[in-house]
From TrEMBL:
Residues 227-251 are annotated as: Disordered. It comes from Paracoccus stylophorae. The lineage of its organism: Bacteria, Pseudomonadati, Pseudomonadota, Alphaproteobacteria, Rhodobacterales. Residues 18-115 form the SseB protein N-terminal domain. InterPro entries: SseB_N. This is SseB protein N-terminal domain-containing protein. Pfam families: SseB (PF07179). Residues 236-251 have a biased composition (Pro residues).
C-alpha cells in the first residue's frame, strides 16, 4: 500500500470532486517512476508514450516494482515528482496513466494535467493586517478542516500548528458578516514562510473554492474565539530499548 492507495478507498474515477482533488494533490508530491524508451542520456529523457483513444499518454507508477510488474520485466525509467511530470506532459499535450491495475489507478487526460499544472502554480495571498476575525463558516469547516489537518500534519517539525478563522467585513460593509477566511500558521521560522505558504496555497487550490477565498498568514498570537485549531506537534521519539540485564553473579 502506498500513500496514493491509502487515499483511494474509492476508485479515482468514481470518487467525488473533493477526493479526486486530494488524490491529485498527493500525486503532485509523489515521486513517480515513469517509463522511458531507453536509458537516460545525461539529463535528457524520452518518455515512452502509448496511443490511446483520446491521445498519447505516458505511464508511471509510484513504486519501481509496480512499473516492472506492468511490463513483466526490467524497463528504463526516470524518477520524477508528479508535479514535474505533469508539467512536461502538459507541454506535450499528452496524458498520464498512473498505477495501472492498482487500487489507485488513474487516467489523466491532457485537459486534467493542464488543470493540475495550473493549480500547482497557485500563489499564496497575504492576509491583511487589519482583519476582524471570528469563527469560520460551518460549510467552510466541513469542506476544509479534514484535508487541512492532514496537510499541516505533514509539516511536523516546521510548524507548531495553525487555526482557521472567518474574516468579517470592514466598517461600512453591510452587517459585517463573514466575507472570507484566513488560515493562520504558528511556530514557523521566518525563512520557511514562503515555502509553507506555497504548499498550503497549492492544497487550497485542490479544495472546493470558498466565498471570499482563504488567505494565509503567520502569527504566534492566540487563536480568535471560535477558530478551528490544528495541532502539528512533533512525533514523539520512540523510547530507548530496555538495557539487557547483566550476567548472573556466580557464587
Amino acid at each position: 500500500m502506498t500513500a496514493l492507495d491509502d487515499l483511494a478507498a474509492i476508485p479515482f474515477h468514481d470518487a467525488d470532486a473533493g477526493l479526486r482533488a486530494r488524490m491529485l494533490s498527493r500525486l503532485a508530491d509523489t515521486e513517480l517512476s515513469v517509463a522511458l524508451t531507453h536509458e537516460p542520456a545525461g539529463d535528457r529523457i524520452e518518455l515512452r508514450m502509448f496511443q490511446l483513444e483520446h491521445g498519447p499518454v505516458a505511464l508511471a507508477c509510484d513504486a519501481e516494482d509496480r512499473l516492472a510488474g506492468f511490463f513483466d520485466g526490467p524497463v528504463a525509467y526516470a524518477a520524477l515528482p508528479g508535479r514535474v511530470l505533469a508539467g512536461l506532459l502538459r507541454a506535450e499535450g499528452a496524458g498520464l496513466l498512473v498505477n495501472p491495475g492498482q487500487r489507485s489507478e488513474m487516467l489523466l487526460d491532457a485537459a486534467m494535467l493542464d488543470w493540475l499544472s495550473s493549480a500547482l502554480s497557485a500563489a499564496p495571498q497575504a492576509a491583511e493586517a487589519r482583519l476582524r476575525l471570528t469563527g469560520p463558516a460551518p460549510d467552510t469547516v466541513a469542506a476544509l478542516a479534514e484535508p487541512l489537518a492532514a496537510r499541516l500534519a505533514d509539516m511536523r517539525g516546521l510548524i507548531a500548528g495553525g487555526w482557521l478563522a472567518g474574516v468579517r467585513g470592514g466598517e461600512g460593509e453591510g452587517d459585517g458578516g463573514v466575507t472570507g477566511h484566513v488560515l493562520v500558521i504558528a511556530g514557523a521560522a521566518p525563512d520557511h514562510h514562503d515555502r509553507i505558504a506555497k504548499a498550503l496555497s497549492e492544497t487550497l487550490a485542490f479544495l472546493p473554492p470558498q466565498p471570499g477565498g482563504v488567505d494565509i498568514s503567520f502569527s504566534d498570537a492566540a487563536p480568535c474565539p471560535g477558530a478551528v485549531r490544528f495541532d502539528a506537534e512533533p512525533i514523539p521519539a520512540a523510547p530507548p530499548p530496555d538495557r539487557p540485564k547483566g550476567p548472573p553473579i556466580l557464587r
